[in-house]
Amino acid sequence: MTEFRPILAILVSAVAIPVILSLKGRPNLREGVTLTVAFAKFAIIASMVPGVLNGTEYEFVVGQFATGIELAFSVDPLGLLFGLLASLLWIVTSFYSIGYMRGLDEHAQTRYFASFAASLASAIGVAFASNLLTLFVCYELLTVSTYPLVTHDETDEARAAGRKYLAYTFGGGVAVLGGTVLVFVLAGTTAFTPGGLEGLATADPTLARAAFALLAAGFGVKAALMPMHSWLPDAMVAPTPVSGLLHAVAVVKSGVFGIARVVLDVFGTETMAELGVGLPLAAIAAFTLLTASIIALRQDNLKRRLAYSTISQLSYIVLGLGLLHGQALTGGLLHIPAHAFMKLTLFFCAGAIHVETHTDDISDMAGIGTRMPLTMAAFAVAAAGMAGIPLVAGFVSKWYLVIGALSLDGGLIFAAALLVSGVLNIAYFWPIVYQAYFESPEDHDQKPLLEAPLGGRGDVRADGGSDDDAHDHADESAVPDPQHVDHLGMHREDHEHHGGPPEGGWDDRGWRGGESTWFMLGPILTAATLSLLLGTMPYTAVFLRIVDTIVGNLPGVGV
Amino acid sequence: MIEQIPVLLVVLPIVGGAVPLVASLVSDRAGWPIATLTLIGQVGLAGLLAWTVGTSGTVSYAVGGFAAPYGIELVVDGLSGAVALLVAVVSLGVLAYAREAGPHSNSFYGLYLLLVAGLTGMTVTGDVFNLYVFLEITGLAAYGLVASGRDASAAVAALKYLIIGTVGASLYLLGVGYLLAATGTLNMADLATKLGEMAAYDSTLVLTAFGLMVGGLTVKVALFPLHTWQPDAYANAPDSVSAFISALVSTVSAYALARLLFSVFTAEFLTAVPVARWALVGLACVSIVAGSALAVSQNSVQRMLAYSSVSQFGLVIAGFAIATPMAVVGATVHLLGHAVMKGGLFAATGIIERETGATTISGYAGMGSRVPLTAFSFSVLSLAMVGVPPAVGFVGKWYIVLGAVNAEIWPVVAVLLASTLLTLAYFARLVERLYFAEATIHAEEGVPEDAPVTDGSGQAVSFGMVAVVVLAAVLAVALTAAVPALEQVLEDTLLPILNQ
């Protein structure tokens, strides 16, 4: 049935862009517009939830784009999952953005909020696109609209990160375009069909595999599959709300979402199994999730550690999709919202610490629990969820993933990878929580746990030689190492106090919100609560019901 | 009345172009209003013609009542109708820009309208010799326009353009002679039927004719390595002229090349002589890559845009040479879209130079806040050129890639896809500097009072100039909506001549 709500949900924030830009001199009104639009967007999308769960599909056709391809948006359960998530978290992030941007007295806030609105319009477009080409259109627009956010700082590091971001994501876009053309030529259509396009099942297997490889690689860039992940840690120079909503939820999930569309609605699980492309995808995901977890151990900058954690967790989702089994699919898809709530909490905490204490490095955070008790408590909850501890969202999705992996032949290795990664999660999150509450700035263990590369001591030299090139090293260290660059682009300089506790140790701010403004604490606690809700009552929190509907609609998937 | 429109389209600007010269006796500022009136009429006629072609098919007219194949025939089908309309609309748009940007002399507008006449003539003609005549009219008018800048460099650029352009036209003429020797006719439709019968496709005579004619036109299109006249001409001409010729001259030459391929040599020729097709496809691919590489290495923004044209026309010619209906539709869409985008980009560089004095890539740093509307339009046009959907630059590419995949020419598919990244390489750094870099030129030292003025006009920026750029940016996105209609018209035209 034709319905205006899908397009309205996209346009509501697109229309807000010129309004936000025109309110440059009136920040309160400008943020009012952002909040109004965020609530309106969520309300529009939420109003479609009951209908979609009952099997209604809302569709809006904008027009003919090219031969046989419409620019069309429709809301099906999978799209709703992503759309609902992104719009819900945009509300939370908008509040947080206000606290964060004003707390740091940032420049170019108008551009920031306008780009944010544009990003959300594109992200919802990605969610509701009803064919591969429409998805591609929104996917590219998402790249463009997030670029100003990555380069927000206008420093050399930010520009370099922006360049890398554009190069990687447009490179991925080219691969997606190539894959889309191939799918169109092979199947005669690119419209999403649960269970896959018929034309692909009978097409030349080599070409079909090539199409899949192109699409998976293209979307894999934003999903940060290794070896296409390295834009993500660099993009952490962006302001923290951007890292939180876009580089843990909207942008990276658009990559994962693209892979989900390709697996479920373009190729379909049966064709995937016939072509034998599921296993390589799962293998790459398993490799990524382990390797990224290990790299995360070595990161001292909190945001970079979170970025590697994101890379690892995104691969949980891809792994679930690659296994092509009912419960693994459920787990993978449920991990989309689960990871979003938890990672958003973690990023918000990192941002709050940055705003309040200008501390970015984990090694400077010993004892910070007295200064920011609520923040660190939320951090602890979310970190536990990341590791898959029960009662938090991450447990539910990981449960389904492991069950799904175990019920497959040869799935043991994937289950093992998931469990090992859980242990690694604890290894890189627990020290942060532990030192925050139980250690003091004067007396704490060495952080990070792994300083040197495994098996080495001190700096690694590519050729294993001795220190003839010590001078080079000294010169290089004058250039700010991205690890030590906070989002202001300053690097830690010994003569200038920047991060870490003030003279005389952390203040004690108590548990009643004295640690920060409620514009930041509120969103942090909301996000943490949402991850607890999803962990304790996954059905009531609607997301698991949506996921069940998605998986239930798939033909030939054993649950 | 309808069948006379093709000839009126050529006569109107020629007559209009003569009026300013006469009007010089009365006023030395009469050129602009006369040109505007003429081109408004031109747009009306071209619109009517395009609509007629779209609804009731090809329009043809025998000049002077001499029937083809002996007389000169003017033929307008979907492809030429679209290009004729583009020529009319863009030349009217550039006029809005030229009013303030100048040059203001009457002789300039005389040449301007003569160029419109030449371009329209190339578009509507159905006769290969007549095409040569209009090619020369176009060339001469363009040389004169490039030379109308007051700098010495403009004169040098025009001379270079003249020499290389004349060589190209002469090659084409030589090819026409060979064709005449082979078949005894000059009419395109007649040639198409006689070429296969009277002279075998792979005979040396026909192949030589093909090589000479296509070679001559690729000089005019400015494919690598025959592009050397183009960056100088674009960068040294007055801004209005840069915008005009970058949008139209190469575009119409590329159209003429397509016309030659499909209406004279025909798709059968391309099938019978694969080496001809591969040579053209190869040349186009080299042009895509080399043009982008040269564009990346430029410091002057206008020269970068000029090399970008080398690369983009590689894309267009590749689409034509692949010669499946999809690819040809794509090439046409990209041809029209590129004209709007490149014209808009050149117009924007003119405004930015006037407002801030910035002409180089490093000079563009931080200009986003100085000229917000122009810089934003510039960015939109850049992204459209890169092929970010839903801009028209993407749609053209989509069809061309689709055609290449259908034809299963995988290396070409790879080059076409990579062209997105190559284009990104030179546009992204410019957009990045516009918005995210520290300004290197500051307001107080902006344009020195005694700065050399390249085109003898003031430095003021009028509303019309900005409006043209903004309109180009809007069109770069909005034209996407017109593509399905265009595709319909083109398919009616193309399917018969591509024998599909």
Automatic annotation (TrEMBL), chain A:
Domain called NADH:quinone oxidoreductase/Mrp antiporter transmembrane: residue spans: 129-417
InterPro entries: ComplexI-like_HydComp, ND/Mrp_TM
Keyword check for Transmembrane helix: yes
Assigned GO CC terms: plasma membrane
Keywords from the named record: Cell membrane, Membrane, Oxidoreductase, Transmembrane, Transmembrane helix
Record bears the keyword Iron: no
Signal peptide residue numbers: none
Gene Ontology MF term list: oxidoreductase activity
Domain of life: Archaea
Residues that span the membrane, as ranges: 6-23, 35-53, 78-98, 110-128, 165-187, 207-225, 245-264, 276-297, 306-324, 336-355, 376-400, 412-430, 518-539
Region (Disordered): 448-486
Ranges of biased composition (kind: Basic and acidic residues): 458-476
Membrane topology recorded in Swiss-Prot or TrEMBL: Multi-pass membrane protein
Pfam family for this entry, one: Proton_antipo_M
Subcellular location: Cell membrane
NCBIfam families: PRK07234.1-1 (NF005561)
PANTHER family named in the record: HYDROGENASE-4 COMPONENT F, NADH-UBIQUINONE_PLASTOQUINONE
Protein name (Swiss-Prot/TrEMBL): Cation:proton antiporter
Lineage: Archaea, Methanobacteriati, Methanobacteriota, Stenosarchaea group, Halobacteria
TrEMBL record, chain B:
GO terms under biological process: ATP synthesis coupled electron transport
Chief place where the protein resides: membrane
GO cellular component: plasma membrane
Record bears the keyword Cell membrane: yes
UniProt GO MF annotations: NADH dehydrogenase (ubiquinone) activity
Topology relative to the membrane: Multi-pass membrane protein
Location of this chain's protein in the cell: Cell membrane
Transmembrane segments: 6-27, 34-54, 74-96, 108-125, 131-149, 161-184, 204-229, 241-258, 278-301, 313-336, 373-395, 407-428, 460-486
InterPro entries: CPA3_Na-H_Antiporter_D (IPR050586), NADH_UbQ_OxRdtase (IPR003918), ND/Mrp_TM (IPR001750)
Keywords tagged on the record: Cell membrane, Membrane, Transmembrane, Transmembrane helix
Segment forming the signal sequence: none
Superkingdom assignment: Archaea
NADH:quinone oxidoreductase/Mrp antiporter transmembrane domain mapped to chain residues: 126-423
Name the UniProt record assigns to this protein: Cation:proton antiporter
Organism: Haloarcula mannanilytica
